[in-house]
Amino acid sequence: MRWPWCWTRRAIWRTSQHNQTVIRGVVMLGYPISEIVFLVGWIAGAGVLVGILAGLFGIGGGAVIVPVLYEVFRVLNVPEELRMQMCIGTSLAIIVPTTVRSYYAHKKRGAVIMEVVKAWAVPSVIGVILGSVIASFAPSAVFKIAFVIFATFISARMLFGADRLSLGKDLPGCILLSVYGFITGLFSSLVGVSGGAVSNAVLTLYGRTMQQAVATSSGIGVPITIVGTIGYMFAGWHHMSQLPPLSIGFVSLIGVALMAPVSSYTASYGVRLAHWLPRRKLEIAFGIFLGLASLRFLISLL
User: Fold this and answer.
1) Residue 105 lies in a domain
2) Phi and psi for 152 in degrees, rounded to 5?
3) Contact by Cβ (8 Å): 59, 44
4) pLDDT of 232 higher than 70
5) Which of the pair, 93 or 37, is modelled with greater confidence?
6) What is the pTM of this model?
7) Which residues, including other chains, have CB under 8 Å from residue 88's CB and lie 6 or more apart?
8) What is the extent of the structural domain holding 99?
9) Residue 63 lies in a domain
10) 230 by DSSP, 3-state: which?
């Protein structure tokens, strides 16, 4: 098996579907410099787009990262059967720091519902582990379908105001909370998010304020993203020879190192755009964005 950090030489670099051959030259960490530069350029460009979209729509998780990374990895010729898994694993790794910072900030303000975090922690981790196991052998279509369901759900909430629904004013018992936690963890690991979209929906349906829901979701997202990242590293280990340079399993280290800081910097430009548009128009725009992303994945399934 080829170790990603070994200093070896590789003469062939697949730059297109025709498997073009490049001249043997200087290598870095076992890869031609041209290969590294090519990957860095595309990831950095994707980080700019993710940052602007995140600032514009007020969301920086997998809902934005996964569709963008999918197109980047398509250009980089990551095999179709592994592309979605690569997007999801990298997305989970990218949002780990944001989730951790968000959780501690909300906790200081006392907005986190700790009883929910404690009830969901173990079931959500079990769900994440199951999702990682699925990633090691399931076809790409499974993850595309999961993302379509996720994106359609969020899009419907944005476009039609589905958040006005209610399941009651009190939180359910421990058993049902555990079920919600398991579903949140499993679904998060299949679509590359921290689980906020699912847990926010559940908590607001049970009468909790959006501030409480967001704060509590950040706490649940910490174990989900950390365990999910590690799980996807292991899940993709036996596919290393087919993945981009400097990847550990289904996690692109270049993607993590570049996209997080670049997207954080360019998010301010998206925020400026957001202040030019009314909130309702932003919701509609984001709903349309997710709808188009869903359509893109549906077409790829045909």
Assistant:
1) yes
2) -65, -40
3) no
4) yes
5) 93
6) 0.74
7) 62, 66, 135, 143, 189, 190, 191, 192, 232, 250
8) 27-301
9) yes
10) helix
